[in-house]
Amino acid sequence: MNQFPGFAYRQGKLFVEDVDLSTLALEFGTPAYIYSKSALMTRWVELCGAFSALDFFPCYAVKANSNIAILQILAQWGAGFDIVSLGELERVLAAGGDASKIMFSGVAKREDEIRKAIHCQIGCINVESEYELTRICEIAQDMQTPVNVSLRINPDVNPKTHPYISTGLKESKFGIASQRALSLYDSIKNHPWVKPVGVDCHIGSQITETAPYIDAAKHVFAFVEKLEQLGIQLKHIDLGGGFGIQYEQEQPPEFAAYADKIAPLFANKSYQLIVEPGRSIVANAGMLLARVEYIKDTDVNEFVLVDAAMNDLIRPALYKAWHTLLPVNEDKQRIEKIYDVVGPVCESGDFFAKQRNMRELQSGDLIAIMSAGAYAMTMASNYNSRQRPCELLVEGEEVHLIRRRDALDELWQNEILLPS
Ligand code: LLP
Predict the structure, then answer these.
(1) Does 189 share its domain with 247?
(2) Domain total for the chain?
(3) N or C end of the chain: smaller count of CB under 10 Å?
């Protein structure tokens, strides 16, 4: 598998599709997020192809990358969307997405969020607790408007991923234990407005083996069989997101490996399979382009100080995540060195790599921080009053600016001086 399908060296220069990254740095400045449309398409086509034997409906997880141009492309390809907030709902609608193709996940939905979702006849609300179900019932009753729901059950499966992104263990805040969920389905089966249409499950993110995912799927199937015995026939089974990608040495299963194991569960059943992939679609279709400001050596370390920082990409600081770093101009004459690659923010957690082996870098060089299409720009902040990067989408030789860099005065535009 090619880890970075949209990116390749041509005569020692790193290209995104047919565009030399150094020309983008000159035209748009750095740091900049850059995405390859063809890489995005490769993953989407792989996903849909893998599950094509099933009644399959993929709902892209907006939190991974929520730029409205990316959502627009996915909507054009027929994607549904998994959202977790009013902001994500409005984004999908602004991008031309169809409300009836949206799944609303999230552990603590506010009343106004539920009202808006019901008002725009959202595809389904994934319910996370009995309290939330009661709230949805009250609001739907009050609005005299029907709403589809699905309960997120907690299968108590260890996804074997980073603890911060593990969500399906019984001690986690997510989902409802199956036994309780069973009686909740029973309590709404004749509700005049709230229609149970599906069941939902999500055990975590960056899962790199099929076993935990399949265990969770089997748990869900055992659960729907109990519902069938109660006379409750659902339409869909939503198995969440979680398909891992290669950041470093991981060898995550292909989509087809999941499909091969999931398909037999659906044999002779009429359920539609929904999945909510985020990272596996966008992560390796994007990167963060940064420029080296200084090389600084101390008695212990040699630091590469770049113009991107933890506010732009927080994954290394938050999860000690690995991101591959590539020189934009490959010069094989340069010697190998060991560097800490860090940003300008006033925290020691502001790093992209520690003790990383790289060819010698100099001030002014460009580096590509790879696998930065997911949970990258969406988690960026203005910490240290830094302007969040611009975002570019490349399609062959064409370059689209899909978000301009924050302007300086936007940093305080919502703030109000006291009367003097
Ligand atoms: N559905 C639900 C309900 C989720 O909570 C998530 C991710 C997804 C779908 C998408 O999962 P994916 O296909 O991307 O694995 N910031 C972290 C990742 C947090 C994931 C949270 N939930 C990171 O940078 O690794």
Answers:
(1) yes
(2) 2
(3) C
